[in-house]
Amino acid sequence: MASQQQPSATPTPLVGCLGLIAAVIIGGAGCSLLSDDQEPATPDPTPAQKLAALDGGNRPAADYQQLLNLWSPNCTQDQAELAGLTYAALEDLRKNGVTGETEYSVLAQLNGSTRAGTPTDCKVVAAAYLVLRERS
């Protein structure tokens, strides 16, 4: 004689997850993945947004993004590294008495100093740029 199993009163984890997903989609229904004392995560700023902020907001981040998009295919570095390289170059210029440059102007000059084609180490390009600028 086969024994019959009674259905479990406890929902399976999958059903619980689907219920949570449905509650979130419907409008939250009081559900939150954060505790009351946690703030929602904000996305990290892009390299272009960081440069724009360092420049005091004088140019929109879209201008920086456009130059980073033009420069990055010609470099072995990613856009975050190129933004850091731009900022470091500007700080080096200032430290050595070169004035009148901004994050944007240095980024534009470094972009213009890099040959299109095979990606190169743009740290070398920046170093050469700094030597030439600091001599003039």
Give structural notes.
This protein has 136 residues and is mainly alpha-helical. The chain has a domain at 47-135. Helices cover 54% and strands 0% of the residues. It has helices spanning 13-26, 47-54, 61-71, 79-95, 103-112, 122-135. The protein is globular, with a radius of gyration of 26 Å. The N and C termini lie far apart (99 Å). Residues 10-33 have low confidence and may be disordered.
How would a textbook summarize the main sheet? none
| DSSP strand tally | 0
What is the 3D shape? globular
Approximate helicity band: 40-55%
Low-pLDDT residue spans? 10-33
Class from secondary-structure proportions: mainly alpha
**pLDDT averaged residue by residue:** 81
Strand content: under 5%
What does the radius of gyration come to? 26 Å
Tally of helical runs: 6
Report the span from N to C terminus: 99 Å
Order of helices and strands: HHHHHH
Region (Disordered): 35-56
Transmembrane segments: 12-35
Keywords: Membrane, Transmembrane, Transmembrane helix
